[in-house]
Specification:
By secondary structure, this protein is an all-alpha fold. The chain contains three helices and no strands. The longest helix is centred in the middle third of the chain and has 65 residues. Keywords: Membrane, Transmembrane, Transmembrane helix.
Length: 132
Amino acid sequence: MSEPIGRPDRSIGELVGEIGEDLSKLFRQEVALARAEIKEEARKAAKAGGMFGGAGFAGVMTAVLLSLALVFGLANVMDAGWASLIVAALWAVAGAVLYGKGRTLAREVSVKPEQTVETLKEDARWARDLTR
């Protein structure tokens, strides 16, 4: 027969105490990991929100400038109206680009801390194997 690993004279109380300390340390590490993952996802969500805000502002500018262009264009068909139309078209392009970037960033945001969930599953399997 082989000897047990570690000190053979350790009491059950010491072993239970070590298991408790290990589980406590593991829990703290899992909480720290979840906190880091959530902070990273919040950063991504904030960027996406900024892009949507920019797209909203561009949309308002488009509406204002298109309205002015229509007024000037219909009122007296002057160069100022067509210039406003060109500027409004540029704002529409800017809004479309910002919206597209914001949508791409929003798709990358994960509300579930994937890595933490996976390590918690591994921890559960490890604890289950200990009891067998």
